[in-house]
Amino acid sequence: xxxxxxxxxxxxxxxxxxxxxxxxxxxxxxxxxxxxxxxxxxxxxxxxxxxxxxxxxxxxxxxxxxxxxxxxxxxxxxxxxxxxxxxxxxxxxxxxxxxxxxxxxxxxxxxxxxxxxxxxxxxxxxxxxxxxxxxxxxxxxxxxxxxxxxxxxxxxxxxxxxxxxxxxxxxxxxxxxxxxxxxxxxxxxxxxxxxxxxxxxxxxxxxxxxxxxxxxxxxxxxxxxxxxxxxxxxxxxxxxxxxxxxxxxxxxxxxxxxxxxxxxxxxxxxxxxxxxxxxxxxxxxxxxxxxxxxxxxxxxxxxxxxxxxxxxxxxxxxxxxxxxxxxx
Length: 328
Fold this sequence. Notes:
about 325 residues; mainly alpha; Rossmann fold; Tyrosyl-Transfer RNA Synthetase; 2 domains; three-stranded parallel β-sheet; two-stranded parallel ribbon; 14 helices; 5 strands; about 55% helix
């Protein structure tokens, strides 16, 4: 494959948790060794739902990028940038919005779902309806060949492909490649209460919190609700905490725990103590690295500025092709 460029971004919602690490960052770490990667903080996308509360976006961006750097995303290997510092995203978004049918946006599977989940917010806005167009611009402004996505995100990528195809058809030029999915396997990371780990649910273990905070949270995690007493046999397959065992505890030790749990030879408290030690041990060097980076004033800002400069250079080349195609 001659074009090995990929683009991926995250909305700056603050410090990241274990779900982000296993769902996104672990894949990014692998991808940056093989592809030409553009990773960006999608701060303009934050405005689609937080347009009336923007005060935290800048701080959240810094916290998020610190987590990226601490966990191995390398500005020497990847272009790390801030969406709002590359104006070509907005320019292409405007042009694409002129050719994108409203019906395509209304059939977006998450449009009504997000409105229902965020019922307390007024999301009857042009920007919220049109966020797939901005997402498309984010990708094709770099003429990316691949986009790392999970199976649940394939409908979003299909809208991007349709818009790129429509632009090429209307203006009779192959300006944009139709980006293909780079399917990534992401383990399901459950939060403390058994729901999907999420900052908004208050059930998350953050990458940057202290070891003691992590231990305390893990000791409160839901286990096997059908095991009311220590003397009752347990079942790891219905234990919420055991989902994290599969990510952090070595297989030999995990097999021992399964046998002991089913034989009522180990209690949930003891089991969660074992889990906590493995989680804390795994995260310790990464957290130390984050503390070190956080102590360097201006580091994140400098990395974002340089990455945004590099991104803008590439985006400007694309926009010249776009302007030539539409004869502006």
